[in-house]
């Protein structure tokens, strides 16, 4: 009991300031002996006030103050994740509470401090949010509460055992947002463009009147002759097509933007895209490439596929080695007998890097519909447009413009060999990939 009391007792700055002031006053009494009795009275008064303060703080029992941390059991990578601290005071008088939260070491937050004034018996909630930029396990420590009375000479330390471990998964919040907007038919607000063309498969859907923008190749002349107005055939989209997200985990994907690596952007995009492809009736799968290791999650249209993709994406990490695209082309050629859509998330920073992998990309594009997704260097692009004043800055800006121009040359080089490409900023990756997929569906390329 005494040990617990000692461990939870802390003196405040106010107490040490008062004690220091009395000590100085005692020094003054050495020169003015008549003031010695006053100094003694002040010391006795401070001691009595301290005892009174301790009596107020510790007479409330073992649970005078309750603090509970409320949060999800998993976090979404790259998003703001809400956390709530629920506080309840069982004291019969107003108290001041200082909260020190032990957040996971990955956030490097050593200054989390909240000061709250609470009335007798009051309940309140403190909310804050954290944005992780790495996937993995995060360890939350205790929530330390220091309670002070109105006297403020001492404080009682209360730290409930609320340690917890949460896992940070790819951005499922972004996935939920897309699902919500899709359910409410508001994808246009997020930048996803719907395509008017229903499809050109062999599966007939219905006949309707011609409207401006319809493909004239689908005109139904017999129906037109009967109705006296132009009529067109509509066909349903091809479904149950195999769609694979191929994620390069080589050193090129380790480059960071706004705290997230390119690999994390690719993972978040692959998660959202897979969900949309499943809703469109296609089979989705996942391929990851690291050095000479190629891991494949077979495509499926089952409801459990999203959980399998999420768990597989959670454990991915970048490698310092360069990925072996020859191994990738050989593996996919032997595994996939059916023509599939391959969305390759990778990054090329120079034309030389693309030329090294181009023969293997051409081999993949020979048997599958290949879409190469790579990234604009937004920092270089911004620097290339900034105003410069010195010769050195001009020299650096020319180099930045050269790198930005090389990205456009890569798109042209890929198109020369019939390989689809998508050059995008990391922030717009998901939107652009989804729009490209819808465009390919409307053009009946898959």
Automatic annotation (TrEMBL):
Span of domain DUF58: 208-371
Keyword Transport: no
One Pfam family hit: DUF58
Name by which UniProt lists this protein: DUF58 domain-containing protein
UniProt xrefs under InterPro entries: DUF58 (IPR002881)
Source taxonomy: Bacteria, Pseudomonadati, Bacteroidota, Chitinophagia, Chitinophagales
Membrane-spanning intervals of the chain: 12-32, 38-58
Alphabetically ordered keywords of this record: Membrane, Transmembrane, Transmembrane helix
């Amino acid at each position: 009991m005494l040990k617990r009391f000692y461990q939870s007792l802390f003196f405040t700055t106010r107490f040490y300031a008062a004690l220091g002031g009395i000590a100085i006053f005692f020094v003054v009494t050495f020169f003015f002996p008549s003031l010695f009795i006053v100094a003694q009275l002040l010391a006795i008064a401070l001691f009595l006030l301290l005892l009174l303060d301790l009596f107020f703080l510790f007479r409330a029992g073992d649970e005078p103050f309750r603090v509970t941390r409320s949060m999800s059991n998993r976090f979404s990578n790259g998003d703001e994740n809400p956390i709530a601290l629920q506080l309840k005071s069982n004291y019969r008088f107003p108290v001041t509470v200082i909260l020190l939260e032990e957040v996971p070491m990955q956030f490097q937050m050593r200054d989390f401090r909240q000061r709250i004034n609470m009335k007798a018996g009051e309940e309140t909630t403190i909310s804050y949010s954290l944005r992780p930029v790495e996937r993995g396990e995060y360890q939350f420590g205790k929530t330390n509460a220091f309670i002070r009375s109105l006297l403020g000479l001492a404080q009682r330390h209360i730290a409930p055992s609320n340690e917890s471990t949460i896992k940070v998964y790819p951005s499922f919040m972004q996935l939920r947002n897309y699902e919500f907007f899709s359910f409410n038919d508001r994808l246009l607000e997020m930048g996803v463009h719907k395509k008017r063309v229903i499809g050109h498969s062999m599966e007939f859907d219905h006949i309707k009147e011609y409207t401006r923008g319809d493909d004239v190749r689908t005109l139904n002349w017999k129906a037109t002759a009967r109705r006296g107005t132009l009529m067109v055939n509509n066909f349903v989209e091809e479904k149950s097509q195999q769609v694979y997200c191929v994620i390069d985990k080589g050193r090129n994907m380790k480059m960071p933007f706004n705290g997230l690596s390119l690999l994390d952007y690719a993972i978040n995009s692959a998660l959202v895209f897979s969900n949309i492809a499943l809703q469109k009736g296609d089979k989705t799968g996942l391929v990851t490439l690291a050095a000479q290791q190629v891991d494949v999650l077979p495509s499926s249209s089952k409801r459990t596929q999203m959980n399998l993709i999420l768990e597989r994406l959670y454990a991915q990490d970048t490698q310092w080695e360069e990925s072996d695209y020859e191994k990738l082309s050989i593996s996919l050629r032997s595994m996939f007998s059916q023509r599939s859509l391959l969305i390759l998330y990778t990054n090329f920073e120079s034309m030389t890097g693309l030329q090294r992998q181009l023969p293997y990309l051409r081999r993949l594009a020979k048997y599958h519909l290949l879409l190469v997704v790579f990234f604009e260097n937004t920092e270089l692009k911004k620097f290339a447009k900034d105003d410069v004043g010195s010769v050195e800055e001009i020299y650096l800006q020319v180099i930045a413009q050269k790198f930005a121009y090389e990205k456009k040359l890569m798109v042209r080089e890929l198109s020369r060999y019939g390989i689809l490409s998508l050059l995008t900023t990391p922030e717009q990756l998901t939107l652009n990939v989804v729009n490209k997929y819808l465009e390919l569906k409307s053009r009946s390329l898959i």
